[in-house]
Amino acid sequence: MAFSSIEDFLAMDGHGAYVWASYGIAVASLGWNAVHPLLQRRRFLRLQKRRALGEATP
């Protein structure tokens, strides 16, 4: 599919909003799937450190 300008490419024959929104959702989902385990690991390690030091859990 050839587009005559960048505006035509971004508009995608009137379907651009749906196309770019789906790409945005996909990128956000992949980003969340990459970051969330790291946040959980950090939280888990902090909790284990507190337990090892004998502090009360929040």
Cα distance spanning the termini: 57 Å
Order of helices and strands: HH
Principal-axis shape equals rod-shaped
Give the proportion of residues in helices.
over 70%
Overall structural domain count: 1
Largest sheet: none
Structural class by helix and strand composition: mainly alpha
Uncertain regions: pLDDT < 50 for 5+ in a row?
none
Q: What portion of the residues fall into strands of 2 or more residues?
A: under 5%
Instruction: Give the assembly state of these chains.
Output: single chain
Overall average residue pLDDT: 91
Number of strands: 0
Structure explained in plain terms:
The structure is a single chain. With 58 residues, the protein is mainly α. The chain has one domain (6-55). The chain is built from 2 helices and no strands. It has helices spanning 6-11, 16-52. The longest helix has 37 residues, at 16-52. 0% of the residues are buried.
Question: Which key terms come to mind for this protein?
Answer:
single chain; 58 residues; mainly alpha; 2 helices; 0% strand; rod-shaped
Short note summarizing the structure:
With 58 residues, this protein is mainly alpha-helical.
Which helices and strands occur, and which strands form pairs?
Elements: H1 6-11, H2 16-52
